[in-house]
């Protein structure tokens, strides 16, 4: 089957001066303009294309890759706003529409927003939405404590960063648990700290326990070797400096260098550490 808003491999039915006509199965014949053809095609050849509707509502193909497909999230910039909604740049000549009733909050021209692409049932067109509640899982979260999960940063709140967990649930990373630069649209790995009785989910970014310390210890050893055996971050260094260099807390840093010291790998000073 062929689906709008996705990348498909289609077979060529016919080639003309204007372009190639592809077998789109349920979508009928899909046109690939000649300027999109990167190498010579003949009937029977296959080609990987992204399928969308043109201004005449006809299935059209492009060999370009958009920034997101239907069902995916992406950070897209608003190019124009008119009476029906905002038009976002998703890497194709034709922009994608975010209707006003799918904007939460209302979009402004020139700004970028995290959106999810979907297929509008009424028009059959590919659209964008930042009203994520309608796409997320309505069932009660069943994550285990410290379960590793994939995250998308959705925004900032008064207490922390709002994240989408496994593209299924909202969660929050409290500001005091963040030790690296974060931005809307960023994808990263995290760990479920707690699922509260009201269904809200607390998330942390650092691997818990000694596994994290061991991983950090490897980073510290690599950094020491890069710096010629001396690193000006010691036992009494400021937390901000540790956060800037290693994206971790001072407590984790002290545990890591303590472990390296016990292994006889380094010496620790107030403002520096040294390879033995």
TrEMBL record:
Gene3D superfamilies given in the database record: Nucleic acid-binding proteins, Winged helix-like DNA-binding domain superfamily/Winged helix DNA-binding domain
Pfam families: S1_2, WHD_CvfB
Stretches assigned to the Conserved virulence factor B first S1 domain: 4-64
Domain of life: Bacteria
Conserved virulence factor B-like winged helix domain mapped to chain residues: 218-275
Recorded family membership: Belongs to the CvfB family.
Name of the protein described by the UniProt record: GntR family transcriptional regulator
UniProt organism field: Pseudoalteromonas prydzensis
């Amino acid at each position: 089957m062929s689906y709008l808003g996705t990348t498909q491999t289609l077979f060529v039915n016919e080639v003309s001066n204007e372009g190639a006509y592809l077998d789109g199965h349920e979508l009928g014949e899909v046109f690939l303009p000649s300027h999109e053809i990167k190498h010579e095609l003949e009937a029977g050849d296959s080609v990987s294309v992204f399928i969308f509707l043109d201004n005449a509502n006809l299935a059209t193909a492009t060999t370009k890759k958009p920034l997101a497909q239907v069902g995916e999230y992406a950070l897209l910039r608003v190019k124009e706003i008119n009476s029906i909604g905002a038009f976002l740049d998703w890497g194709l000549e034709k922009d994608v529409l975010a209707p006003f009733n799918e904007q939460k909050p209302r979009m402004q021209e020139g700004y970028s927003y995290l959106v999810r692409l979907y297929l509008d049932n009424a028009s059959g067109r590919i659209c964008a939405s930042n009203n994520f509640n309608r796409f997320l899982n309505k069932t009660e979260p069943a994550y285990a404590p410290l379960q590793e999960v994939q995250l998308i940063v959705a925004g900032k709140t008064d207490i922390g960063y709002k994240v989408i967990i496994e593209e299924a649930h909202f969660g929050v990373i409290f500001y005091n648990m963040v030790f690296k630069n974060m931005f809307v649209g960023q994808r990263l790995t995290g760990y479920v700290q707690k699922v509260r009785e009201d269904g809200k989910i607390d998330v942390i970014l650092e691997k818990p326990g000694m596994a994290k310390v061991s991983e950090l210890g490897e980073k510290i050893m690599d950094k020491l070797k890069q710096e010629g055996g001396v690193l000006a971050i010691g036992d009494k260094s400021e937390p901000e400096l540790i956060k800037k260099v290693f994206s971790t807390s001072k407590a984790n840093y002290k545990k890591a260098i303590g472990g390296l010291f016990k292994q006889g790998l380094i010496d620790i000073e107030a403002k520096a550490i040294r390879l033995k």
